[in-house]
């Protein structure tokens, strides 16, 4: 049976595995530290007991040695049998204490000499004061050596404790590092597919994004299944987008041909080519001519929008801005003269680079917005320039500001804000969207710099090097 790889685990299993992987090293460290301190504590307790017994033995031997020396001197003076028995009893106790074994403390040199001297007791009389005095001298040396042994043992225990502390600190740092690495790893295992899915969702929100990402191969099972559903959704959206583009192409072309015939017939009637009209008939033909022109504008905008969605190939050329603006403003001159409204033009002789048809469409939409939504008593400002590798154009008008909550949606197709358009012809909501798409085709952008009663400024920015 194949083991499950982390990529095949469910989200819950991966989280639990990560939790166990992070916590387990720390649990092992706590368990090891507890065992080590338990062993050290038991060893310290045993050392303390033996140290006390070891010290007491040296003190008892020293006391017995003095008593034996005193008893032997008394025996030499009075020579009583009871003193000799007492001396023998003291000597036996002294021998027993000298030979007492210890687990942790080694045999000292003084103890070895005492044991050797005790084995020679048969050659000496217990009443021999010099023999007893030599035992007392060695007992004093044993006391000093016993104290040194206890001190060395305590120092060894202290060193062992310090060594254990250092070992635990290093182990803690190593296991903490391992836990952090595991945290980073499992976080990466979770965040990488989530980040991938976030990019996939963002790509779904942009129907023009043609950079197809690879299918998710590793990650929690739920996220892999979600990626499969996103693939299905993407296919459905692509199909809908194709159907929409096809519908726009067909409906635009199908409407344009009969509309041309309707406009031609309406113009003939309105101009009274086929005969004179009554005032009421003249009014009806005027409405027919006005609304047919409006319908033609909508169809042309739909064609422009559909053309931009198809990623038209740029026809890059050098553009004289003065000539372009003169052609754009010529149809608006009667309206400007009627309003007595001025337009401030940029510096003359400026040469730009780009697709002239797309730039004409962009500027025409921005000028149309400025004329229909701006303050008719204020001058419309046009500014342009070329700076290093960037060229730009600004269109500024005064009037009712665009609400902040509407500014984020200005460049969405078919979106119409709350501002009222002047004139009998209503807007379609495609003008700014077409202008923004024209700039994207130039690898540039259209942005709203500011919007208040004094100035609403749209800025076109695109690179000079488009080849």
Protein described:
- With 467 residues, this protein is α+β, with helices and mostly antiparallel strands.
- 65% of the residues lie in helices and 9% in strands.
- The chain has helices spanning 11-78, 81-98, 109-119, 129-205, 221-270, 279-309, 321-329, 333-339, 356-373, 404-407, 431-441; strands spanning 316-320, 343-344, 351-355, 380-387, 390-397, 445-451, 456-463.
- Helix 3 (109-119) runs antiparallel to helix 4, helix 5 packs antiparallel against helix 6 (279-309) and helix 6 (279-309) runs parallel beside helix 11 (431-441).
- The relative contact order is 0.06.
- The model is unreliable at 1-5 (pLDDT under 50).
Could you write a compact summary of the structure shown?
With 467 residues, the chain is α+β, with helices and mostly antiparallel strands. Helix content is 65%, strand content 9%. The two termini are 59 Å apart.
């Amino acid at each position: 049976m194949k083991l499950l790889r982390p990529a095949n685990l469910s989200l819950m299993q991966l989280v639990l595995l990560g939790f166990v992987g992070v916590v387990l090293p720390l649990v092992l460290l706590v368990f090891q530290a507890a065992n080590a301190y338990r062993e050290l504590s038991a060893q310290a307790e045993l050392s303390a007991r033996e140290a006390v017994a070891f010290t007491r033995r040296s003190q008892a031997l020293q006391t017995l040695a003095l008593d034996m020396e005193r008893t032997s001197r008394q025996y030499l003076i009075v020579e009583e049998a009871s003193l000799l028995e007492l001396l023998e009893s003291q000597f036996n106790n002294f021998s027993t204490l000298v030979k007492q074994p210890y687990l942790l403390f080694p045999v000292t040199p003084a103890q070895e000499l005492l044991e050797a001297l005790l084995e020679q007791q048969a050659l000496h009389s217990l009443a021999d004061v010099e023999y007893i005095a030599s035992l007392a001298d060695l007992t004093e040396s044993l006391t000093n050596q016993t104290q040194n042994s206890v001190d060395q043992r305590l120092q060894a225990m202290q060193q062992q404790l310090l060594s254990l502390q250092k070992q635990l600190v290093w182990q803690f740092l190593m296991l903490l590092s391992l836990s952090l690495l595991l945290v980073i790893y499992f976080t990466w295992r979770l965040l990488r597919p989530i980040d991938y899915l976030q990019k996939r969702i963002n790509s779904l929100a942009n129907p023009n994004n043609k950079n197809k990402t690879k299918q998710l191969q590793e990650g929690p099972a739920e996220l892999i299944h979600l990626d499969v559903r996103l693939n299905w959704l993407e296919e459905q959206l692509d199909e809908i987008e194709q159907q929409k583009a096809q519908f726009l192409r067909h409906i635009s072309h199908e409407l344009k041909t009969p509309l041309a015939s309707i406009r031609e017939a309406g113009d003939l009637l309105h101009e009274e080519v086929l005969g004179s009209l009554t005032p009421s008939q003249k009014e009806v033909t005027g409405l027919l001519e006005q609304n047919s022109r409006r319908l033609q504008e909508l169809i042309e905008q739909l064609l422009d929008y559909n053309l931009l969605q198809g990623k038209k190939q740029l026809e890059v050329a050098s553009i004289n801005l003065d000539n372009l603006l003169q052609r754009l403003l010529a149809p608006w001159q009667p309206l400007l003269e009627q309003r007595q409204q001025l337009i401030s033009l940029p510096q003359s002789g400026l040469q730009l680079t780009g697709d002239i048809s797309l730039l004409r469409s962009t500027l025409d939409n921005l000028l149309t917005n400025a004329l229909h939504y701006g303050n008719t008593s204020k001058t419309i400002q046009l500014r342009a320039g070329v700076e290093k590798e960037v060229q730009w154009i600004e269109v500024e008008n005064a009037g009712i500001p665009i609400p902040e909550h509407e500014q984020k949606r200005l460049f969405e197709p078919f979106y119409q804000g709350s501002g009222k358009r002047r004139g009998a012809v209503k807007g379609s909501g495609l003008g700014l969207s077409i202008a923004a798409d024209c700039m994207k085709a130039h690898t540039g952008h259209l942005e709203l710099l500011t919007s208040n009663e004094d100035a609403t400024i749209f800025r076109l920015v695109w690179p000079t090097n488009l080849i």
